[in-house]
Amino acid sequence: MRILALALLGGLAVSCAPVASEKTAERLSEIEIKVTRVEQKAADLEGDIEKTNERIDKLTELISELRLEIERIKLKLGITDRVTSVRKPSTIPESEAEKIPAPPSEEQQGPQEEEVVDSETAYKKAIELYSIKKLYEARNAFLDFIKKYPSDKYTDNAFFWIGKVYQELGDTAKAESVFRSLIEKCEGGELPDCNKLPDAYLMMMRINIDRGNTEEANKYYSLLIEKFPTSDAAVRAREQKNLMGE
Fold first, then answer.
1. Given CB 3.0 to 4.6 Å as the disulfide criterion, which of 48, 60, 166, 214 pairs with 171?
2. Based on C-alpha coordinates, what's the Rg of the chain?
3. Per-domain residue ranges for the chain?
4. pTM of the complete model
5. Using one digit for the tens of pLDDT, what is the confidence trace for 108-156?
6. Which has the closest alpha carbon to 190: 83, 81, 91?
7. How much of the chain is helix, strand and coil, in % rounded to 5?
């Protein structure tokens, strides 16, 4: 009887083996299908991120060109945007210029611009150089403007466009340094007009987004929305957040 029972158990074990193998194979197949689906979703997400980044780059470039055109039109009409706040007059010491890197060689600088006598003409010439993408010459013109007119209504603009020049030259570190300097001067009340302060916050937000520094990016975003909630820069910041799905 015992021998018969063992024989029956052995037969049952043999008959169960194929069933267990079949179930294991089905489970592996299910897992492989799930892995394939996850990989496809990851690929789709990566493609969406690339498309979003391309859209952001194109929008940023378009906005930059439009802002520059607005700047030129305002100059022709004699219009300035002002951020109303109490500012104390100041002068920028010679050491301040050292924060902005020295000019390149004469080959890079190109021909020197003729001397100008008033701040609006000087600023207009610098803007025109930037608009035709003579970046080194524009940077030098804006730097000269800051030295000659350290507390003019366009001084903050000059700082901002120097930062933009460095961005277009691919030197994000120098661009960040200039934008930060502008922010510090405006927040410290060292400039009489700071209509470019919202844009400086926006640029710092974008620089830190590109670096993956979310905490720092959110800091500048919060400052922008809190201080200038209805500004063009705040609108663009919100649009970028929406594009990023935040």
1. 166
2. 30
3. 87-169
4. 0.60
5. 555 554 554 699 999 999 999 999 999 999 999 999 999 999 999 999 9
6. 91
7. 75, 0, 25
